[in-house]
Design goal:
By secondary structure, the protein is an alpha/beta fold. It has 7 helices and 15 strands.
Length: 233
């Protein structure tokens, strides 16, 4: 699991690193830690893939809140935890989908509690990577980025992030390779990532990316049951 610390004061960086190391030993976790001294360096070096980001609010050049706004333009899913001296920033955090806040001075017990919740969140929403191939093109796509998969004849179309990718195969074959508690068929032609569902209206599924998919009469009961179980987990 890849963690980023965005913090300009070295003593605070050292404290967070020591806490992560202690947590890693206590919980037998595997973490890669990346350090950035300000928001601009973090954004310049950013590539999709950080699972958890610990970000200071008060930093030079651009503050943590502005950094977070720019981060969300390129990655809407990273688990973002603010480190701040003022609890009043919690309200502003909703604007950038912050997962949580930790107040300074950071204490280990509180930090460990927040990190446990973050790790559980990441594991629930990120089930690994699928390798998609079409002719000479190979793409690696995070399963959590997939909105839904569509069957069209002998082709399978992956709708993920803001794009789509076509491969050859069958939806039945694809379904066997994906976590059954996170994906469900709403009909013969669609396999949906339950985390990407915005709402169900009658016989239509509204997706978070704006698409609307029809639920078949035969699949509706099973689909609603799986969606309900997922939402309650």
């Amino acid at each position: 699991m890849k963690l980023a610390i965005v913090e300009d004061r070295q003593e605070h960086v050292d404290r967070l690193q020591s806490f992560i190391e202690k947590y890693r030993e206590e919980h037998n976790e595997q973490f890669q830690i990346f350090i950035f001294s300000d928001g601009l360096k973090f954004l310049d070096a950013y590539k999709r893939g950080f699972d958890i980001v610990f970000m200071d609010i008060n930093m030079p050049h651009i503050d943590g809140m502005e950094t977070a706004k720019r981060l969300r333009e390129i990655d809407k899913n990273t688990c973002l935890i603010f480190i701040t001296e003022h609890s009043s920033f919690a309200v502003s955090g909703y604007e950038v989908s912050a997962f949580d806040f930790i107040l300074k001075p950071v204490e280990y017990a509180r930090f460990a509690e927040k990190l446990t919740k973050a790790v559980e969140f990441v594991r629930k929403n990120d089930r690994g990577i699928v390798h998609l191939k079409n002719k000479d093109v190979l793409r690696m796509v995070k399963i959590s980025d997939i909105n839904y998969i569509e069957s069209a004849g002998h082709k399978v179309i992956y709708h993920y992030a803001d794009t789509q990718f076509e491969t050859w195969g069958s939806l039945d074959e694809v379904e066997k390779k994906l976590p059954s508690d996170c994906f469900a068929r709403c009909g013969k032609s669609y396999l949906i990532n339950l985390a990407a569902v915005a709402s169900v209206n009658g016989n239509e599924v509204a997706m978070l990316n704006g698409d609307a998919l029809l639920i078949s009469r035969l699949k509706k009961k099973e689909f609603i049951e799986k969606l309900t179980l997922y939402a309650m987990s």
